[in-house]
């Protein structure tokens, strides 16, 4: 092997060692440290606790089916995180049309004939979206108030308190996290 090839080989080995230490050790350690020290709630999965017990994550929807709680978006995966995803049905597919008609009828029956907003009819891409539109939450408020024996105004105020605006003021749409809203509702009912 010539001295030129030896120099190139040694330079490549040095670069390999340097990059391995930087990108295989120091960078992951720095990211882990930022996650643990500065963003520990998010790094732990944005867990939601009640009475010291983890009851869910604010990032994952749950299947609330009783009249006492606000109901989230439909889920093609039945809210199972290990198989999350959409149906992959096109909009005019017969199965999709039937699912939409069934959801529309169920929503109207449960919510006093209220027209179902789009997010009450369609599942999110992951099937695990924890958020609904404020319009969807407001349409459900009379049912939830009646089922819990609460004043409708108190439930509407609860929805307003849990409505988040657009991210950074311009990204996305206003939304209500159903998991957090239902936990607050349970606290209101317990008083």
What does this structure look like?
There is one protein chain. This protein has 191 residues and is mostly helical. It has two domains: 3-41; 47-190, no CATH class. Helices cover 51% and strands 8% of the residues. The protein is built from seven helices and five strands; from the N terminus they run H-H-E-E-H-H-E-H-H-E-E-H. The strands form two sheets. The protein has a three-stranded antiparallel sheet. Strand 1 (47-50) and strand 2 form a beta hairpin. 21% of the residues are buried.
Brief account:
With 191 residues, this protein is mainly alpha-helical.
Q: Percent of residues in beta strands?
A: 5-15%
First CA to last CA: what distance?
83 Å
Query: What value does the Rg take, in angstroms?
Result: 24 Å
Q: Strand pairing plus helix content: what structural class?
A: mainly alpha
- The residue fraction in helices comes out at 40-55%
Note the main sheet. 3 strands, antiparallel
User: What overall geometry do the principal axes of the alpha carbons give?
Assistant: elongated
- Total of domains: 2
Which segments are poorly predicted (pLDDT under 50) over 5 or more consecutive residues? none
Number of discrete helical segments: 7
Physical arrangement of strands within the biggest beta sheet: 3-5-4
User: What string gives the helices and strands in order?
Assistant: HHEEHHEHHEEH
Oligomer: single chain
Average pLDDT over all residues: 90
Number of strands: 5
């Amino acid at each position: 092997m010539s001295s030129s090839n030896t120099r190139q080989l040694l330079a490549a080995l040095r670069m390999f060692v340097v990059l391995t230490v930087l990108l295989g050790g120091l960078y992951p350690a720095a990211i882990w440290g930022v996650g643990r020290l500065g963003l520990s709630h998010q790094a732990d999965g944005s867990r939601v606790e009640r009475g010291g017990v983890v009851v869910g994550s604010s990032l994952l929807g749950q299947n609330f089916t009783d009249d006492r709680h606000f109901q989230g978006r439909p889920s093609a995966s039945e809210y199972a995180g290990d198989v999350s995803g959409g149906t992959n049905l096109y909009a005019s597919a017969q199965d999709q049309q039937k699912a939409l008609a069934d959801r529309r009828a169920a929503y109207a029956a449960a919510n006093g004939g209220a027209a179902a907003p789009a997010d009450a009819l369609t599942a999110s891409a992951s099937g695990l979206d924890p958020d609904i539109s404020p319009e969807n939450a407001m349409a459900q408020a009379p049912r939830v108030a009646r089922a819990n024996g609460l004043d409708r105004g108190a439930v509407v105020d609860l929805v307003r308190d849990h409505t988040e605006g657009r991210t950074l003021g311009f990204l996305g749409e206003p939304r209500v996290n159903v998991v957090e809203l239902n936990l607050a509702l349970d606290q209101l009912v317990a008083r």
